[in-house]
Amino acid sequence: MDQSAVPQVPPARPEVESLQAYSAPLEGRRGLLRLDFNENTVGPSPKVVEAIRAIPADQYAIYPEYDGLRQAVLAALAAAPGTIAIEQVGLFNGVDAAIHALFQAYGAPGDRLLTTSPTFGYYTPCARMQGMAIEAIPYRLPDFAFPFEEMLAALCGPPSGAAEGWCPPRLLLLCNPNNPTGTRLAPETVLALAAAAPQTLVVVDELYEAFTGDSVLPLLLGAGGQDPEGQKPGIAAATAAGADAAPETAALAATGGVDPFAACPNLLVLRSLSKTAGIAGLRIGFAIGAAAVVDRVSRVTGPYDINSFAVTAAFAALADQAYVDAYVAEVLAARQWLVERLVAAGVRHHVDGGNYLLIWPKRPAAEVDQALREAGILVRSMAGKPLIDGSLRVSLGTRDQMERFWGAFEICDASPG
User: Fold this and answer.
1) Strand order in 89-92's β-sheet?
2) Which sign does the torsion angle of CA 49, 54, 56, 57 carry?
């Protein structure tokens, strides 16, 4: 048969035709100990479950409503009234959707994404589908330190005399703490990078900040110009609304407030309820920044991307901070217990920020990964990832869960015979 006569599928954009989609194991995880995706390992607050069950059946037929959810996000951030306007909070169908949207809004063919390596794998396909160039600067061995000088040089350009045709990166993506290395950035470092590159949108992915307090927001929002430890001046206290202030800044100034993003309008912070509040399956995420940036990122999303169940769950989760705090405390205690076992057993590992750590088994990682799965425990292989090939990323859960993991790991990593 003449193949030329067979109808062909219309081609997608060249960037999509050559794209390798981000993929992760999606099936067959239920009923196992989930230490592979850095999720909450016990589920949401009973108040979240109660709120979802209380949704009347007739509400299923109504499009979602988001009134009050942005205010609830600000209340959970302990933002003082008059500091952040609700227009500065974007709502998304998970942080993955926020990442996808910000690339759609700001990335164009030939633009440059600047990030670190290794880091969250979804940044790369989002950049490639927009035709962007990717510059990934490796962390510094042996402890995966952040490459600040190299990053600053990439942001600020080549030496004088060699700058012809050079343009600053369009986007800088920072995962803080970094997934999978756990590398932590001080808020002052994040603000210094944003200040050094005013033409670059600096996006800080803070999905894991709750476990080790690695957020730029307390410094921005610090009441009285103090950070959570009361040591360093918050930039909000030193920021004043100028004559050319954006509308949201003017509105805040009129009520006596000062926009904490006025001094860094190119900074966008991403947050989620997946890792702490236990509603990863419902998909909801937030972006906090200058209203103009939030507006542009939101323009490329649909009007009802977040479903009503996720909205109801988010309200309940944000109102039950005590549950989240208790879960985080339990995870941190379990982490300390596990690290003590790893040290005593001489197992190579790396632990820093976030609710995960890296382990290098004595046996081949693929064999240990498979053996753990057969024992009902899921971990994530880092095979092929720069600097950490041969390691396993292990999510941290409760003490009981970590005891189960450690008992299985000792058996799975033992030399055969």
Assistant:
1) 89-92, 285-289, 267-272, 201-205, 171-175, 112-117, 133-138
2) positive
Cα distances (angstroms) measured from residue 410 to each of 219, 313, 332, 352: 42, 38, 21, 22
Cα separation, 389 vs 366, in Å, equals 11
What gap in Å lies between CA 200 and CA 187, rounded to an integer?
A: 17
Distance CA 247, CA 227 (A): 27
In this structure, the dihedral spanned by the alpha carbons of residues 237, 319, 324 and 259, taken in order and rounded to 10 degrees, is: -20
Both structure tokens of 209: 């900040």
Model confidence at 23, in pLDDT bands (50, 70, 90)?
A: confident
Burial of 108 (0-12, 13-18, 19+ CB in 10 A): exposed
What is residue 2's predicted lDDT score, i.e. its pLDDT? 64
Question: Which tens digits make up the pLDDT trace of 88-97?
Answer: 999 999 999 9
* Average of per-residue pLDDT values in the chain: 89
Closest Cα partner for 331 from 355, 298, 309, 306?
A: 355
Q: In sequence order, what are the residues at sequence separation of 6 or more whose Cβ sits closer than 8 angstroms to the Cβ of residue 158?
A: 166
Q: Which pair of tokens denotes residue 183?
A: 């590398």
Q: How far apart are the first and last CA of the chain?
A: 58
Angle of helix 308-318 relative to helix 46-53, nearest 10 degrees? 140
Among candidate residues 179, 191, 13, 32, the one with its CA nearest the CA of residue 96: 179
189 CB-contact burial (10 Å; exposed 0-12 / middle 13-18 / buried 19+): middle
Tell me, what DSSP letter sits at residue 78?
T
pLDDT, one tens digit per residue, over 37-72 is 999 999 999 999 999 999 999 999 999 999 999 999
